[in-house]
Amino acid sequence: MVNVFLNGRYIGEHKDPASFIEKIKEMRRNGNLPTELNVAYYKEEDSIYILTDKGRARRPLIVVKDGKPLLTKEHIEKLKKNEISWDDLVKQGVIEYLDAEEEENAYIALDEKDLTPEHTHLEISPTIIMGPQANMVPYAQHSLSYRITLGAKMTKQALGLYTANVPIRADTDVSIIHYPQIPIVKTQMYDLLKVEDHPIGQNVVVAIMPFDGYNIQDAIVINKGSIERGLFRATTYRPYKCEELRYPGGQTDIIKIPDKDIKGYRTEHAYRYLEEDGIIVPEAEVGPGDVLVGKVSPPRFLASLEEFRVGTEAQRETSTTLQHAEQGIVESVLISESEEGNKFVKVKVRDERIPELGDKFASRHGQKGVVGLIVPEEDMPFTADGIIPDIIFSPHSIPTRMTVSHLIEVLGGKVGALYGKYVDATAFQSMSEFELRKMLKEAGFREDGSEIMYDGRTGEEIKARIFIGSQYYYRLKHMVANKIHARSRGPVQLLTRQPTEGRAKEGGLRLGEMEKDCLVGHGASLLLKERFDSDKTVLPVCKKCGLVAIYNKYKNKTMCPVCGENAPVTFVEMSYAFKLLLDELKSMGIYPKLKIKPKY
Fold it and tell me: Which pLDDT band holds residue 598 (cuts at 50, 70, 90)?
């Protein structure tokens, strides 16, 4: 007898599992049982599992009987004419949904020509083994799975025109590309997702060749002329908010240009773009530290009575300013009311982003790279027809990654551009490489896509033939302008007096343990000392009792709280974090005695 479980609960036994499962499947296909039900038999456990749980991942497959699919040409014709729907096919038992458990007992064919009498199901299309983003990779069957995954990931990061109402939206951090294009080489998924309405890249001419080592590793060389003509030009938008908050005691913030005697008043230069109401003018060019909305707030603490004066001295400056390392032009200013009925201002700042050294680009095949050099158009290599590539891609990026699809797309792009039509590159059902080569030859080009090219700087013919064609490229959201970070001195934390952390807070760059080992290995001891000086402090220490002493800077007098005025006091250089440790030990009643030895 075989155990039978319903949603993990034991409900009984059955002596003939094969006929029992067959009966359940038949009833489900006839509509006597719900289509959401799935059943599976595990030989090792000798158990039957019936599942009707919510939240199971299920996928549709065509039912196969005696080696023939139940979906016929008549069904497809009726579907085209809208005489029947998908739901009708499910009700008729032509298509059924399988979950992970039932799939264990299924034998699924990828293609109709692979069917044998043993098969139980047929895939609707072989491309559905991949998700929407992976299906946007052209000729995916010619690449490794990891590269397709990378290509899918970078599709999500590509800049495009994500919505038509960008001017009236205020999303947190948004970049849009100015001239997005529909790819020449595209898959079915582009039509299904209607990517034509919001494209996410541009068709560029790509030559695969080295260029003086400037496209070494994964770098790309880009044509300056193309950039000047608007290639991959983008704009970044960032909104800033400001609200007049209410405080207990009936006090509120006031949006206005702060008076000079207010605590925390910035320079006049910072407020130069504000109008009388304390709000910035649209189209003003702003940089780091510039005030967008002027605001004053009441004092933080109302504890001490002498502080509590209604005058301007008690107020403090809390204006909204442009973030550190940000710049741009004020796009729009919105004045409204918040839910609480407070005055509310939203300022949107835009910044034009022209491709520069270090910006990240990628093709759809996981071949990502940053700009290594921007070359004047006259120095770029050119073909006999005078075609100058927009991007020079390194040939070394192909062999180890085995992204053959990248190469076929270049070929397909060339054919599409020459014939003026889109090339279908859907995985497993794409236009073949043989066809592309044939069409290229008919157009009067070499069938392998290579051409003789000339060096733009010398005018000499390049000795090797260069593979050149058209390809769809993405500009990714990782731009060097958002990442560049350096500092000499700057803000420090209140507690430890060490530099703040992070680019937004103008923070320091940490020299870690491994970097320290490098300096030790080089014997660069003074550099090492300098690196670890970020919270250097000098403390007076009593030589007698080893505790921190007192030093009066104005009278130049020292004194030890334990040993008195005549105690021998010396000044010791230490980290402020260590000084904190001494204080914590003292607060716990531990005596941190410093033994002072003379410097040799």
Answer: confident
Residue 398 has pLDDT above 80, yes or no: yes
Q: Confirm whether 23 is domain-assigned.
A: yes
Instruction: Tell me how crowded residue 45 is: count the other CB atoms within 10 A of its CB.
Output: 11
Neighbours of 108 (CB within 10 A): 15
Sheet with 254-255: strands ordered across: 254-255, 295-297, 316-317
Dihedrals phi, psi of 564, to nearest 5 degrees: 95, -170
Give the position of tokens 């320091």: 508
DSSP, collapsed to helix, strand or coil, labels residue 527 as: helix
Contacts of 321 (CB under 8 A, 6+ apart): 270, 289, 290, 291, 292
pLDDT value at position 396?
95
pLDDT value at 347 more than 80:
yes
Question: Measured between alpha carbons, how far is 349 from 292 in angstroms, rounded to an integer?
Answer: 10
Q: What is the CATH number of the domain that holds 349?
A: 2.40.50.150
In the block, tokens 């510039």 appear at: 290
Burial 142-158 (b: 16+ CB within 10 A, else e): bbeeebbbbbbebbeeb
- Number of structural domains in the chain: 5
- Rounded Cα distance between 42 and 5, Å, is 11
Query: What pLDDT, in 10s, does the model give residues 105-115?
Result: 999 998 889 89
Asked if residue 256 lies in contact with residue 309, where contact means CB atoms within 8 angstroms, the answer is no
Distances (CA, A) of 386 to 230, 293, 453: 20, 53, 9
Same domain, 578 and 492: no
Kindly compute the dihedral angle of the four CA atoms of residues 415, 419, 422, 428, in this order, to the nearest 10 degrees.
Answer: -40
Separation between Cα atoms, residue 131 and residue 200, nearest integer Å: 18
Kindly give the interhelix angle for 433-442 and 404-419, rounded to the nearest 10 degrees: 40
- Map residue 398 onto helix, strand or coil: coil
Whether pLDDT at 310 is above 60:
no
Active site residue 218: yes
Q: Give the integer Cα–Cα distance in Å for 9 and 316.
A: 66
Q: Return the amino acid letter for 182.
A: I
Residue 131 lies in a domain: no
Cα dihedral sign, 456-458-461-465: negative
Say yes or no: 374 and 347 in one domain.
no
What is the model's pLDDT at position 473? 97
- Average pLDDT of 327-334? 95
CA dihedral (490, 496, 498, 504) positive or negative: negative
For 32-180, strand residue ranges (E) read 38-42, 47-51, 58-65, 68-69, 95-99, 108-109, 121-122, 174-177
Q: Output the domain CATH number for residue 503.
A: 3.90.1800.10
Which residue among 87, 99, 218, 259 is the active-site one? 218
CA distance 256 to 240: 16
Q: What is the pTM of this model?
A: 0.84
Task: State pLDDT tens for residues 16-46.
Answer: 889 999 999 999 988 889 889 999 999 888 8
Residues 19 and 111 in one domain: yes
Q: Maximum distance among all alpha carbons in the chain?
A: 109
